[in-house]
């Protein structure tokens, strides 16, 4: 039973449904992993009713870092990346025990699943020039792969921070492989 709800929790991308699953399954004694899941929940959605997703926001910031200039006057880009690392709870990922590290990986994978869902379902994302026509399914996959490549690989490479973002890169790969099996060749690692 324990593993079943956890798998459902990490596959669900709707925040209110995820919160309900978390509440239902962590009412009694809390394990260390349950406490960590709640900590990740607060870091991602805040303490109140989930209205915004800080982790998805961090992915968008990474995308902007990847698309921006390669010049880093005053180290502002690295400072922004350090803030993103902190927001995504990656700062002390190396010191986590295996179970907690796996929970963080699954949470980050869930963020990428949510990102891909929003992208795939967004009309502006899938349309061609000025909303005229739609991208083919293959075109959508390529566009999602470009975005994930920019977020998980290009930004960390440009900032020389691959080690700090290693868990995020692994989560991106797992999520992409789950959603688009046999299409990993579209990713630019």
Report on the architecture of this protein.
The model has no long low-confidence stretch (mean pLDDT 86). This protein is mainly alpha-helical and 189 residues long. It has one domain.
Query: What ranges have pLDDT less than 50 throughout 5 or more consecutive residues?
Result: none
How many helix segments?
Answer: 9
Strand percentage lies at: under 5%
Overall pLDDT, averaged?
86
- The chain-level structural class is mainly alpha
Q: What is the distance, rounded to the nearest whole angstrom, between the alpha carbons of the first and last residues?
A: 37 Å
How many strands, what sense, and barrel or not for the largest sheet? none
Shape: globular
Helix/strand order, N-terminal first: HHHHHHHHH
What's this entry about, in short?
It is built from nine helices and no strands.
Task: Name its key features.
single chain, about 190 residues, mainly alpha, about 0% strand
Helices and strands in order, then pairings?
Layout: H1 2-11, H2 15-25, H3 32-45, H4 54-67, H5 76-87, H6 98-121, H7 123-126, H8 137-158, H9 166-179
